[in-house]
From TrEMBL:
Transmembrane segments: none annotated. It comes from Agrilus planipennis (Emerald ash borer). It holds the Pfam family Fy-3. This is Protein C12orf4 homolog isoform X2. GO terms for cellular component: cytoplasm.
Length: 516
């Protein structure tokens, strides 16, 4: 029989609130209790998440203590032979089999598996165009709301800046002092935070509604297609009519955009291995890594890159990208990347913010060095995407300023991190991978021609060795490898870097026969 122990807990809530006495026991619903505390104490909206985590930590600690007391009592009873241990073991075994999915019998596929199967079947059917048009229309709605959110936040910031400037100019007047300046600053911060949280919450609600409606539509359209052999055109209440969008077609200048995006590029076909040769495609290009993940928002139709993303989403032919970042998850360079991800709804995987939060939780629990709170150079974490062009998996690899040195070698932590990334790619059906060749995204003063040549040669040779090593382990072949160079690289340096590639890799050259 379960024992319940009640205990009165005094908590000091954040923001200087008075002490609140809370009664917590084993069967207390902590989530409900936390929201009651937040509402009763009128916690500001922008601090709810932080307050929630703090209160939850204290409450769960005390609940765990209650469970420990109950467990200790049961253990003491077991030691004194006052309970039937065999009967308890049988009861536990029964509950685990009935209540735990991991140990229970799998009766049917999960909702995620069913949706994946349905999507994969429809995307390889005549329904593909309708699906892409619906996704594109959803994305246009989200982009409009994101732009409107940013406009309102900027407008408020401009108004607050003008107000603060005028207040500072009047600081010498009798009716203005430092205390009032601080009050204005505090009010500005609260108003700004409240507006941002409010607009972001509305945007997230819209995304969840789109996600739910889209997934329901996929399942419904599959059932109708199987039953009637026809594919009706949907009309979403969250976006303009699809028939209107599909009836108005306008070229989006895709070819011109590619010419502007990739100023320099060159492709090679190589062979690796001495006996059982394997063929790979290598492409070297100069571009901005963020542009590779961006969608042409001026198009009124889905871009061809998104078509390829959809077709290969649930296949063994995935595409990956190595994105250099700092030790803090979701900051610094990845801010621009996150903004791109947020401009459309993620229908298949958790949203980028939720993925970052899950990664942070894993990092906190599994860091090798207990005294360190940050990732180390060479470490990487993975995010999954279905709303980016030609990218399904992003490897966020941690780097530092030591990469700017010309003296790094093959034992550098970041180089070894590339080895681990290639291993993961071959193990999980990632057959196309984009790697920054110089391990830098922008040209700086210290990146001379000699520096670039030495760095490119190191990365070329290391990647070649890693690919040969991975081929001996089995798994998927890395069919396409793309080396990315900074956009500001001169054409002459680009030519010198691509010229060294045939001397490192065995390039496949055609034989030209001349008739006499």
């Amino acid at each position: 029989m379960e024992t319940t122990i009640a205990q009165n807990i005094c908590l000091n809530l954040p923001l200087g609130f008075t002490e609140v006495e809370v009664n917590v026991s084993n069967d207390t619903n902590i989530e409900e209790l936390i929201y009651i505390l937040i509402n009763d104490n009128k916690v500001p909206v922008y601090l709810e998440k932080e307050c929630y985590k703090e209160i939850e930590k204290h409450l769960r600690d005390h609940v765990d203590n209650n469970y420990n007391l109950v467990t200790d009592k049961i253990i003491q009873d077991a030691k004194s032979n006052t309970i039937d241990v065999e009967e308890i073991i049988k009861e536990w075994e029964k509950m685990i089999r009935e209540e735990t999915a991991e140990f229970g019998e799998k009766v049917c596929a999960s909702d995620e598996e069913l949706f994946a199967l349905a999507y994969h079947k429809l995307v390889h059917s005549p329904a593909l165009e309708t699906m892409l048009q619906l996704e594109h229309t959803y994305a246009q709605t989200i982009r409009h709301r994101v732009d409107e959110r940013d406009r309102q936040i900027k407008s408020l910031s401009d108004i607050q800046t003008d107000e603060m400037t005028k207040a500072v100019d009047r600081l010498e007047d009798e009716d203005m002092n430092e205390r009032k300046i601080n009050e204005i600053a505090a009010r500005h911060f609260e108003d700004h935070s409240f507006l941002r949280v409010q607009l972001t919450s509305e945007l997230e609600t819209l995304k969840e509604a789109q996600r739910r409606e889209y997934r329901e539509w996929i399942m419904q359209i599959l059932e109708q297609n199987q039953a009637k052999g026809s594919l009706p055109t949907p009309n979403s209440p969250l976006s303009p009519s699809l028939s209107t969008v599909m009836s108005f077609r306008e070229p989006c200048g895709f070819d011109n955009d590619l010419q502007n995006l990739y100023l320099n590029e060159e492709s090679f076909t190589i062979h690796l291995g001495s006996q059982l040769k394997q063929m790979h495609n290598i492409r070297v290009l100069t571009a901005d890594v963020i542009d590779l993940c961006s969608i042409n928002e001026t198009c009124l139709e889905p871009t061809p890159q998104l078509l390829q993303t959809s077709l290969a989403l649930y296949s063994n032919d995935l595409s990956g990208l190595v994105l250099l970042t700092d030790p803090v998850v979701g900051t610094w360079f990845t801010t621009g990347f996150s903004s791109i991800c947020q401009r459309s709804t993620e229908f298949h995987f958790p949203h980028i913010e939720d993925q970052y939060e899950a990664i942070n939780n894993v990092i906190k629990n599994h860091l090798k060095d207990g005294n360190s709170k940050l990732l180390q150079p060479g470490d990487f974490y993975i995010t999954r995407h279905s709303n980016l062009p030609e990218v399904h998996v992003v490897f966020h690899m941690v780097t530092d300023d030591r990469l700017k040195s010309a003296d790094i070698n093959s034992r550098n932590a970041v180089i070894l991190g590339l080895r681990s990334i290639l291993k993961v790619a071959c193990s999980y059906d990632i057959t196309s991978l984009t790697i920054p060749l110089l391990l830098q995204y922008e040209m700086t003063e210290e990146m001379t021609v000699a520096w670039c040549t030495k760095r490119a040669e190191l990365v070329f040779k290391c990647v070649k060795g890693f690919m040969i090593e991975m081929a001996s382990w089995g798994g998927s072949d890395l069919k396409n490898l793309q080396f990315l160079l900074p956009r500001g690289l001169s054409h002459e340096v680009f030519q010198s870097l691509t010229a060294m590639l045939p001397s490192i890799f065995k390039v496949s050259n055609p034989l030209i026969l001349k008739s006499t």
